[in-house]
């Protein structure tokens, strides 16, 4: 099944390249003909066609950046509120909304695995599963600290406030990857899944939290009313996290913020959202935009594509 899927992806890519090459040859012939016959009326049509081909080529270019082993896989995206109190929990919820909307624009399916609401507004944490072709490839560079600066709506004198939240993206590792988990290393807790305002989703203890004691990794799921299903989802998340942690050690990559349990604060920022100045800047690539609401509404590709082109 997997080989057939990969074959289908490669066949579609080859066909797209062939069409682009064919269109370029055709336009070249038309251009040469228009020059020979001194017919300037065709030039506007040629420019329009070239613009269309340029868009196609840019989309094909992204396939080059999705060459990592797990880029083709579905993924999980964890959001954790950091320093900043109520504002930080509101900020975490804004990021949650942003990534959900981005996923919808990409025609990806999402499932909310876990969502812990804040005491007043927003969320303390959330985990989303994102399903679609190259979901991990698209989102892997979003891992890091996201910093918000704005006039706080929760401050009586409307003071400028800085909040932090972390995003951690990891691939949904399939069952062909062998990660051994000793049951003795696990602590499994069950609890009632709670909604906003402390309301219970159901009256049974169906939500499951799994702690891997040696590494300190924690996963949890409350997306199903079945405790058994939630346990399987949490264990699968744990397997994915352990796999990525293992690969990071092998490749001697930079320690992942989530794994090291480092503070969510000033360090390791990847992007600043300065809303009272209508400015969002990626600190790694230097890309800066002023249409802040559009970004928060999920139109993130300007940042994601730039980070991929920079090889992050």
TrEMBL record:
Posttranslational modification: Methylated by PrmC. Methylation increases the termination efficiency of RF2.
Sites of N5-methylglutamine modification: 199
Keyword Repeat in annotation: no
Protein's UniProt keywords contain Cytoplasm: yes
GO function terms (MF aspect): translation release factor activity, codon specific
Pfam families attached to this UniProt entry: PCRF (PF03462), RF-1 (PF00472)
InterPro entries: PCRF (IPR005139), Pep_chain_release_fac_I (IPR000352), Pep_chain_release_fac_I_sf (IPR045853), PrfB (IPR004374)
Chain ranges of the Prokaryotic-type class I peptide chain release factors domain: 192-208
Subcellular location field: Cytoplasm
Keywords, in A-Z order: Cytoplasm, Methylation, Protein biosynthesis
GO CC list: cytoplasm
Protein role: Peptide chain release factor 2 directs the termination of translation in response to the peptide chain termination codons UGA and UAA.
HAMAP family found in the cross-reference section: Rel_fac_2
Family statement: Belongs to the prokaryotic/mitochondrial release factor family.
Record's protein name: Peptide chain release factor 2
Upper classification of the organism: Bacteria, Pseudomonadati, Pseudomonadota, Gammaproteobacteria, Enterobacterales
